[in-house]
């Protein structure tokens, strides 16, 4: 009984949220492991973009088959998932044919530079989940209404999933309120997963 968090994080923002989501999942007594999708940029490009490589194990088709549910950390690129995530999903054709992911739960959390594209990134990811027959679990507003509706703080995320706003050059770190929302997403996702497996 285990949940995998799979992410791509060029500037550590998604990785920071992933660690908080993991804490939330584990409040339910559920094992949670973090993986990253393979990098498609060469090392020079990552350096030129100011990237900070993460050191999580690489996710592959075997990881998708092994785990029962997934929280996916996806940064926004022009309102969509980045090429690294697209390449990862493009390599899952054999799993799609076999229906290996059918019925597995999945939630999404995001990071954007400006805040634009949060929900669109998740909505585009849901298209892939649907093709695999996976069950999308949104964050919703329950237990996070006050945090999501605050107008006095800059924050990412929404009812589709937790999120953070990094700033145009990745200079902004996830705030306390964004971390609290991410933790609650992990907790609720873990609780729903536990209910579906017992």
TrEMBL record:
<dbReference type="GO" id="GO:0160020">
    <property type="term" value="P:positive regulation of ferroptosis"/>
</dbReference>
<dbReference type="InterPro" id="IPR010089">
    <property type="entry name" value="Flavoprotein_WrbA-like"/>
</dbReference>
<dbReference type="GO" id="GO:0010181">
    <property type="term" value="F:FMN binding"/>
</dbReference>
<protein>
    <recommendedName>
        <fullName>Flavodoxin-like domain-containing protein</fullName>
    </recommendedName>
</protein>
<dbReference type="InterPro" id="IPR008254">
    <property type="entry name" value="Flavodoxin/NO_synth"/>
</dbReference>
<dbReference type="InterPro" id="IPR005025">
    <property type="entry name" value="FMN_Rdtase-like_dom"/>
</dbReference>
<dbReference type="Pfam" id="PF03358">
    <property type="entry name" value="FMN_red"/>
</dbReference>
<dbReference type="GO" id="GO:0005737">
    <property type="term" value="C:cytoplasm"/>
</dbReference>
<comment type="similarity">
    <text>Belongs to the WrbA family.</text>
</comment>
<dbReference type="GO" id="GO:0032126">
    <property type="term" value="C:eisosome"/>
</dbReference>
<dbReference type="InterPro" id="IPR029039">
    <property type="entry name" value="Flavoprotein-like_sf"/>
</dbReference>
<dbReference type="GO" id="GO:0003955">
    <property type="term" value="F:NAD(P)H dehydrogenase (quinone) activity"/>
</dbReference>
<feature type="domain" description="Flavodoxin-like">
    <location>
        <begin position="3"/>
        <end position="189"/>
    </location>
</feature>
<dbReference type="GO" id="GO:0016020">
    <property type="term" value="C:membrane"/>
</dbReference>
């Amino acid at each position: 009984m285990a949940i995998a968090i799979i992410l791509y994080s060029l500037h550590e923002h998604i990785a920071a949220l992933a660690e908080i989501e993991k804490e939330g999942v584990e409040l339910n007594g559920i094992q949670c492991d973090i993986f990253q999708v393979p990098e498609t940029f060469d090392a020079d490009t990552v350096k030129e973009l100011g990237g900070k490589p993460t050191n999580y194990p690489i996710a592959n088709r075997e990881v998708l088959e092994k785990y029962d549910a997934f929280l996916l950390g996806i940064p926004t690129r022009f309102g969509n998932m980045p090429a690294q995530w697209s390449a990862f999903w493009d390599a899952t054709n054999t799993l799609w044919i076999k229906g290996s992911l059918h019925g597995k739960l999945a939630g999404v959390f995001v990071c954007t530079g400006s805040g634009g594209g949060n929900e669109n990134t998740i909505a585009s990811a849901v298209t892939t989940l649907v093709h695999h027959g996976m069950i999308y679990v949104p964050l919703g507003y329950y237990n996070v209404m006050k945090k999501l509706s605050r107008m006095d703080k800059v924050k990412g995320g929404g009812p589709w999933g937790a999120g953070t706003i990094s700033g145009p050059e990745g200079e902004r770190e996830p705030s306390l309120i964004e971390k609290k929302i991410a933790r609650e997403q992990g907790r609720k996702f873990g609780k729903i997963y536990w209910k579906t497996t017992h």
